[in-house]
Amino acid sequence: MQDENTQVSVPEHSAPDAVERLTDENRPRKRSLLRRRSVYIAACVVLVLMLSACISVLVTTMMQPAYVVFDMKGTIDTFRQQTAQSSLTKEALEALTKRFGASLDASLTRWQATHGGIILVKGAVVSGAVDITPEIQADIARQMQGAP
């Protein structure tokens, strides 16, 4: 056993300085590690938000239907003028009118199914929509002549 008066000799500056040095050295490391981690998390959040915004814009653009215009009144007026000039019986005129109506409906339905757009009448649109009237009129003429 050692005397109580005997003390272990420890250099005065070694123990407290070593403890201080360790804590001082660890603090900047912890700060830089936390700072690096928070920058990484913030960058990931920004990346996810940007990716989400891009996907939203693409989906919205792809899913938006095209708006087109068809001159229904002009087409029907042209048909009436052509039938008024012909000398058809009342029964033949009724059959021709029914055939025209069916052809008109079939042409518009086929165009909408093929292109997936929204067809509006010409009077409802001021400007900015594509006019598909010639295309529909040509399809009606083919159907009226009996061509598929």
TrEMBL record:
The residue ranges flagged as biased composition, category Basic and acidic residues, are 14-24
The parts of the chain that form a coiled coil are none
Cited InterPro entries:
TrbI_Ftype (IPR014115)
The UniProt transmembrane annotation reads 39-63
Q: Which UniProt keywords apply?
A: Membrane, Transmembrane, Transmembrane helix
Q: Where do the segments described as Disordered lie?
A: 1-24
Q: Which NCBIfam families match?
A: TrbI_Ftype (TIGR02744)
What's the protein called, per UniProt? Type-F conjugative transfer system protein TrbI
Q: Which organism is it from?
A: Kluyvera intermedia (Enterobacter intermedius)
Question: Could you read off the lineage of the organism from its UniProt record?
Answer: Bacteria, Pseudomonadati, Pseudomonadota, Gammaproteobacteria, Enterobacterales
